[in-house]
Amino acid sequence: MLYIIEHLEEKLYRWCFLEYQHISKIVGKEHLSFTNLKSAAHRKKLLSFGRVEEKSVRQLYGSKNKYAHFSKTCILDPLAKEVLTPQDSKIFDTFIFGGILGNYPMQARTKKEITSKMKLPARNIGKAQMTTDNAIYVVKEIIEHGKNLEDLKFQEELVIPLKSGKEINEEIIIPFRYILVNNKPLISKKLLSYIKMKKGF
Fold first, then answer.
1. Strand runs (DSSP E) across 20-166, as ranges?
2. How far apart are CA 93 and CA 50, in angstroms?
3. Using an 8 Å Cβ cutoff, are 78 and 110 in contact?
4. Which ranges constitute the DSSP H helices of the chain?
5. Would you say the pTM of this structure is higher than 0.85?
C-alpha cells in the first residue's frame, strides 16, 4: 500500500512535521510519500520519513513515473459519499490524504484542493474531522487489517490537562475525532509534549 500526503499548508508547521513523523512510524517510510512540498528545506526535513515530491499530486496524476498506477487510487475525503470498507482493498492500493492543519469547524479543504480537481474515486471514514495521522491509521486498519469502520472505537475530542506543580489548573480541548488504541487516543508523545509546551493547538 502507498499513502500519499498532499501538503496543503504554506509552511511545514511543527504540528504538521510531528504528525508526518508519526505517520512514517505507523505505515513505514517505504509506504509513504509527501507531495506539494515547494520548499527544498521542507523536502530535506521530510526525506528520512518517506518519498518527497515538489510537485502537487495533481501534477503527478497520470504522469509517467512511479505514481502512474493512479487507476487504483482513492482520495480520503470526509465529504465523500461512500464509506471505506475492507472490500476496497481489492480495488485500491494507493490513498491520498490532505496534509492540513485542521480548522474548526471543518472548511472542506480536501474537497476543494484535491477531490474536485482529480477525477478519482473518494471514500470517507466518517464525517468528523481527524488529524492526518489518525486518518491514516484508520485507513490502515480497514484496508490492511480488514476491520469495518463500525468496529473501531473513537472519542470525539481530546482533553489535555495542564499541571502547575501537582495541580491541574487548565486544560486544552482539541475538537477532532481520535481513534482509541488500547483504550487511549492515538497521538504521538512528541506532539503531546509540543501542545503542552505551546498551551494550545
1. 32-35, 51-52, 73-76, 94-99, 122-123, 154-155, 158-164
2. 17
3. yes
4. 14-27, 40-46, 57-60, 109-113, 132-145, 189-198
5. yes
Q: Is 48 exposed, middle or buried (0-12, 13-18, 19+ CB in 10 A)?
A: exposed
Q: Would you state the cell numbers that stand for residue 168, as one nine-digit string?
A: 491541574
The answer to whether residue 145 scores a pLDDT higher than 60 is yes
What confidence tens digit (pLDDT) does each residue in 58-98 have? 888 766 655 656 779 999 999 999 999 999 999 999 999 98
Give the whole-angstrom CA distance, residue 163 versus residue 170.
7
Q: In the chain, what are the domain boundaries? A: 2-147, 155-198
Looking at domain 2-147, does it have CATH number 3.40.50.2300? no
Dist. CA 42–CA 8, nearest whole Å:
13
Residues pairing with 76 in the sheet: 123
Q: CA dist 20 to 117, 151, 186, 187, Å?
A: 24, 26, 14, 12
Distant-in-sequence, close-in-space partners of 14: CB < 8 Å, separation ≥ 6: 194
Respond yes or no on whether the N-terminal peptide bond of residue 78 is cis (omega within 30° of 0).
Answer: no
CB 12 within 8 A of CB 43: no
Angle between helices 14-27 and 189-198 (to 10 degrees): 170
Task: Give the contacts of 7 (CB within 8 A, at least 6 positions apart).
Answer: 16, 34, 35, 36, 37, 42, 99
